[in-house]
Amino acid sequence: MDFDLLPVVISRSPMTRIEVISFDAEGTLVTPEFSEALWREAIPALYARTNALDLASAKRRVYEEYDAVGNQRLEWYDIEYWFDYLKLGSSQPVIHSCLHKVARYPEVDDVLSSLADHYRLVVASGTPLEFLGFLLADVKSRFTRVFSSVSHFRQLKTPEFYLKLCAELGVSPDQVLHVGDSRQFDWFNARESGLHACYLDRSTRDHDESLGDLTELEHVLSRLA
To answer: Which of 79, 99, 109, 157 is most buried (most C-beta within 10 Å)?
Structure first.
């Protein structure tokens, strides 16, 4: 399936009012800087110290292990799995050493504030809850629910996950608009379950088939009203 050939903003049942707006977390509400610092820098650095390796060699070995598992398996998201597998001891000091990298995108606060009076806002993320607590600390009060597919349902963000989310919220899929930065997990799988879905692509100026940032949700919602 070539996701690049598919339209990104979907409108299904225009007569059904959107009740819930669902947001991915990393890459959508918060920048990837925390995760990059943790997985790409701090863990390899600890592996280097633990195994008396230079940093470049440690990065190469750790990245090869990540790639061997891949992001289609739950282990890929489980920091305790990796600390056990790589024999690195406790994960907590390393996690806390990266918390200064947590940052929201600049438009997030204003967008959430403007939407909160009119919609139920939720988070639907593949990030484990132990990280979401840190990542969303300053905006958690804006959301009625925070869902982690891997922590709550032990699965990736499959179409089944989105149906479970709707059941938990007591809404039909066509009453939910989901937005996120993964074509597969946030756009394609959400659409497959019947949700309205938007693909967020902050990396390009050509947004004919995507959102450039969250301020553009206003235009999508006006078309679905």
So the answer is: 157
